[in-house]
Design a protein that fits this description.
Elements lengths: L5 E3 L4 E3 L4 E3 L2 H10 L6 E3 L6 E3 L3 H5 L3 E4 L2 E4 L5 E2 L2 H10 L2 E6 L2 E6 L5 E2 L2 H12 L4
Antiparallel strand pairs: 1-9, 2-3, 4-5, 6-7, 7-8, 9-10, 10-11
Length: about 130
């Protein structure tokens, strides 16, 4: 794939579908395009734990440290003052955008699903990969 324009919402991309955590978003997009079916279970690239895909964002939100008044993301070391902002940030680790035919397409890195709107991708992560049943 040549000259792919990719937009990351955080400096580190987490892609449990391929077991990757790092800065190479192009690698993630190429792998997601090859994904034939969404996985039921994924392996956390941070800790190696196998997790149901529908609970992965919830699992990822446990990778934080609380120190004083700050919540620190264990993935990228970004600091937050409240849990709500941290939880939104966690979801951003799981969404990347690709410019395709002049339009941005957003991918969920947990299941590979595509969206035409960034907000829709973020809501999808919240509803499809964070809810416990």
């Amino acid at each position: 794939m040549s000259q792919v324009q990719v937009q990351k919402l955080t400096k580190i991309v987490v892609c449990p579908a391929i077991g990757y955590m790092g800065e190479d978003a192009v690698k993630v997009v190429e792998a997601l395009r090859q994904l034939s079916t969404p996985p039921d279970k994924v392996k956390c690239p941070k800790c190696g734990q196998e997790v149901e895909a529908r609970k992965f964002a919830l699992h990822l939100s446990k990778h934080c440290r609380v120190g004083g008044k700050n919540i620190v993301c264990d993935i990228c070391n970004e600091k937050f003052k409240d849990m709500g902002k941290f939880l939104r940030h966690v979801r951003e680790h799981l969404v990347i955008g690709v410019l395709r035919n002049g339009m941005w397409v957003w991918y969920c890195t947990v299941c590979g699903r595509e969206f035409t709107c960034k907000r829709s991708a973020l809501v999808h992560v919240l509803k499809s990969h964070e809810v416990e049943e």
